[in-house]
Amino acid sequence: MSELYIKQYLLLSLCFCCILTAKSQPSYTGEIQYKDVTIFRQDDQLCINLNVDVNSLQISKQLLVSHIPVLQAKDMSREYIFNPILISGTIRNKVVKRQKEFYLPDGDETLLNIIHKNRQTPLYVLQLTVPYEEWMRNARLLCWEQVSGCAKCGPEATELILSDRILPPVYIPVFELQYVMPEAEPIKRRSETYAAHLNFKVGRHELLRDFENNATIFREVDQKVTEIRKDENLTVQSMQVVGYASPEGDFNSNLELSKKRTYSFVNYLVNAHHIQPSIVQADWKGEDWDGLAESVKTSFLADREAVIRIIEENENVSRRKDQLHKLNRGETYRTLLNQYYPPLRRIEYTFSYVARAFDVEEAKDIVKTKPQHLSLNEMFLVANTYSKGSEDFNRIFDIAVRLFPTDPVANSNAAVQEIETGALDKAIERLQKINTSEAYNNLGIAYVKKGNFDQARSYFRKAIEAGNVTAQENMRELDLYLESK
Known about the structure:
By secondary structure, this protein is of the alpha+beta class. It has 16 helices and 13 strands.
């Protein structure tokens, strides 16, 4: 209701009122009844339908009863005033008509004028609408009543509560994310790979413990070999040794050199650690161009893109080397030679073993020191010994996905963690690669949290079609929430 309109109405009301001293203001709130009050939200409009019953009303021909519907916030900080309802006796009605024509704009039909003739009349149907604002949800609907035309009538208004709350509170849904229990592994086959960056004299393949920092590297190798071979929880089945060279010099010479250096390392394992030659598999790769490309891609090298392009566009190794030599007048090649080539000269050794099964209590200790020896199933059981959502609980699932980065179950469970912590985009990226009903259900919840309810419904439906009962309950929760908004 506009400010101008309110002023017009108040002026009109003053014209109706007899300004007399009164002992008590008469009230007709019990005789004017509002029936079948229905309030609902339709799109961006708040709709109020009600019936006005005046059949119990007994007023003289001179009286005028004004009812003004009002939406009022619970804390009374805001309100919306609707157009008034005027209920008059037959004589007063003539005055009302004249005053309306004088004080209100031409064609204004905002006042509902009910002529009361003290006889049976039909219910008057009112339909009120107002643009919806969020404060209205908790507001109440009331009427201000003012009576004029009698000795006891005064300017005071009587308040009638029609509805204590406009709309029910928004339903708070409870969605259930689904963890997936991994299947137990009958045999836990594992492997661990380490790199030994041993130093050789130029063009030589002999292992020299006292050459440069080889003593330190040998101690690291001895420690790893001893640690794995003496671990009673493991059964080593084989070892793989692979030699690599950096791409400077002659290609064929580097291939042969990586072969000889590989066998030097194999002989060291056999002689120093008494490893059976039959379980050791030797291989050699020569120049490691793939390793060079990967290290350059993640570097801050000024000519990074040019180096990658040269490697990818030239199958001929000699042409590659020639173009790298010429790049940036040789400055880039010198940087490659000094900083990027040395790490490529290495021997990688891999242990392939079987880890024994662990009970939950054993696994709780193992996960702190050697989590790679556990299966996803064992880690899942450990996680569930902690309170859901606790730091220890979450830590186990984080370890699981880092150890098994491509496993669908590990990723599905990691996504649950991300949804619960608000990393929704990361969770969605994980789950969209997994085609299970649990993943669909969890995607539905992720999209609910993002406010994309159409996508949420789509994934809940996919999960339901796959027979997921939890998704069916989540869909019902979403429906109840949306219906209450």
